[in-house]
Each structure stands twice: as C-alpha cells, then as structure tokens.
C-alpha cells in the first residue's frame, strides 16, 4: 500500500512539471521576459564624506584660540542659545571633548553661559531700533559707534535710518578718530526771536580759528577741532605756496663766448689759399 501511495504522489508531481513546461513553451518570449526579469538593484553607494571628515579633523586639531573664535562667530551670527551638542553640529568644535575651550567660553566677556547653553552677549542689550534710540538718548555726550556694532545684526542699518529721520547725529571725534553718535534732542528745536538772532550775529569773532579755540578753552569749553595740529600736519605734508623752485641758471663757458673775431689765427692759412 505504501509503495502504491508513493507512486501516485510521484505521478502527480510529474503531471505538475509537465503542465508547467507546456505553459512556458506556449508563452511569448517578450511576455516571459517582462514577467520573470526584475530591474537591477541599485549599486551600493559608499559614503563620499571624505572632505567633511578631513575638515572636522583639522578644526579639532587646530589651536584653542581658533576654535574659540569659530564658536564666537557662530553665536554672534545666530544670536541663539546653543548647547555644546548644537555647537558641535554647526561648527565642528567639540566642547565636551575640549575642556580648555569650554572653560574659556564660559569666562569670555562676550559669552553668556546659563549652565546648559551658550549665547552671545553684546555690550548693550538692545534688540530693535526703538531700544537703540532710547539707549543713545541716555548718553548726552555721545557714545562710540564701536560699542553698538555688535548689539544686533541690523544695528548699523538702523543707525542710518535714525540719522535720516534726524533723530541722531553721526559725527567723527577729532581726538579719538572714531565715529560718535549723539541724540538729536527735540527740545533744541525752539523758536528764537529776531532780536536775539541779531544780537548773536553782531558779536565780533576773531578772524583766526586759533584765537577762537583759546577763548573757548578759557571759558571751560573744549573745541571740536584742533587747528594747531591740523596746520602742523598740513605744513609737513604740503609745500609752502611762495617757495617756487628756482630755475638753474645755465653756466656760460668761455668756449661759447669765443667767436671768429677772437680766433684770427684759424683763418690765416685759409686766406693764403
């Protein structure tokens, strides 16, 4: 019985194989290829990050001062509080691995550290044009523009807008040779009577600016310019107007003064011929 069952199973398998072979034989070649053939698998792409890895390695092997500057530039540009992990992702400076850079940034005057993240700390905490104007108005004697340059990214543009609106003055300090910003006090814009204007215009002023500066200093006022220094510098850099270069007089030699009349002997032989 077992032998007959095995023979029956064998016959069924043969029948299945025959039917499969016959179906393959009757199938068109194009249809067969479209059914059985699969698109080739994409080639395995290896990481092409060599340049990035090389740059990261160079940054982390660079000096501590360079890495500190790199982080400072990042904080100043973003104006956001960044964790060491975020700083590492953006600048490739690993603060967790470089304790010297970490401690230097914590103690840096331009950095604020709250125990978790680092952020840029400007000299003056202003964030907008209105806050900027309010700050300038607190300094009636003016303040250097350099103290405001890092307040926020668009601070220099806002200074020009305030100047165009005649709310501030931007002037060059003659002593420090740096730009100063002054508030344009609206209380100064008052109406002056004509008799006061006439009285002011009738005052005789010295013709020499040096005398005016001496008079200002005498009354405890500091002149805005230093005429003596300017004249000294101009005298060094320029030639006095009356010192015209003298033309060199051509020296007349004795040879050029001689004429035929002074050399009669030259013509003695010619007259004989």
Automatic annotation (TrEMBL):
The entry's keywords: DNA-binding, Nucleus, Transcription, Transcription regulation
Domain of life according to the entry: Eukaryota
InterPro entries named in the record: TFA2_Winged_2, TFIIE-bsu, TFIIE_bsu_DNA-bd
One annotated GO biological process: transcription initiation at RNA polymerase II promoter
Any one of the GO CC terms: transcription factor TFIIE complex
Matches recorded under PANTHER family: TRANSCRIPTION INITIATION FACTOR IIE SUBUNIT BETA (PTHR12716:SF8), TRANSCRIPTION INITIATION FACTOR IIE, BETA SUBUNIT (PTHR12716)
Pfam families: TFA2_Winged_2 (PF18121), TFIIE_beta (PF02186)
Name this polypeptide is given: TFIIE beta domain-containing protein
Source organism of the structure: Carnegiea gigantea
Domain TFIIE beta positions: 52-127
Compartment(s) of residence: Nucleus
Listed GO MF terms: DNA binding; TFIIH-class transcription factor complex binding
Role, per record: Recruits TFIIH to the initiation complex and stimulates the RNA polymerase II C-terminal domain kinase and DNA-dependent ATPase activities of TFIIH. Both TFIIH and TFIIE are required for promoter clearance by RNA polymerase.
Keyword Lipid metabolism among UniProt keywords: no
């Amino acid at each position: 019985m077992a032998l007959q069952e095995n023979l029956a199973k064998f016959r069924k398998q043969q029948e299945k194989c025959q039917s499969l072979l016959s179906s393959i034989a009757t199938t068109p070649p194009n249809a067969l290829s479209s059914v059985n053939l699969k698109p080739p698998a994409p080639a395995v792409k290896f990481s092409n990050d060599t340049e990035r890895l090389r740059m990261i390695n160079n940054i982390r092997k660079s000096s501590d001062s360079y890495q500190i500057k790199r982080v400072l530039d990042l904080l100043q540009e973003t104006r956001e509080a960044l964790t060491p992990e975020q700083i590492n992702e953006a600048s490739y400076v690993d603060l967790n691995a470089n304790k010297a850079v970490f401690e230097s940034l914590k103690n840096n005057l331009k950095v604020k550290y709250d125990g978790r993240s680092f952020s840029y700390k400007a000299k003056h905490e202003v964030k907008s044009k209105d806050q900027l104007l309010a700050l300038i108005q607190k300094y009636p004697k003016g303040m250097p523009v350099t103290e405001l340059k890092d307040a926020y990214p668009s601070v220099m543009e806002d200074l020009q807008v305030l100047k165009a609106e005649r709310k501030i003055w931007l002037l060059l300090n003659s002593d420090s040779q740096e730009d100063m910003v002054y508030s344009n006090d609206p209380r100064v814009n008052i109406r002056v009577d004509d008799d006061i204007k006439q009285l002011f215009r009738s005052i005789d002023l010295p013709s020499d600016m040096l005398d005016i500066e001496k008079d200002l200093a005498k009354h405890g006022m500091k002149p805005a310019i230093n005429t003596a220094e300017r004249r000294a510098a101009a005298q060094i850099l320029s030639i006095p107007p009356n010192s015209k270069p003298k033309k060199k007089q051509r020296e007349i030699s004795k040879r050029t003064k001689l004429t035929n009349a002074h050399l009669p002997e030259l013509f003695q032989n010619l007259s004989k011929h």
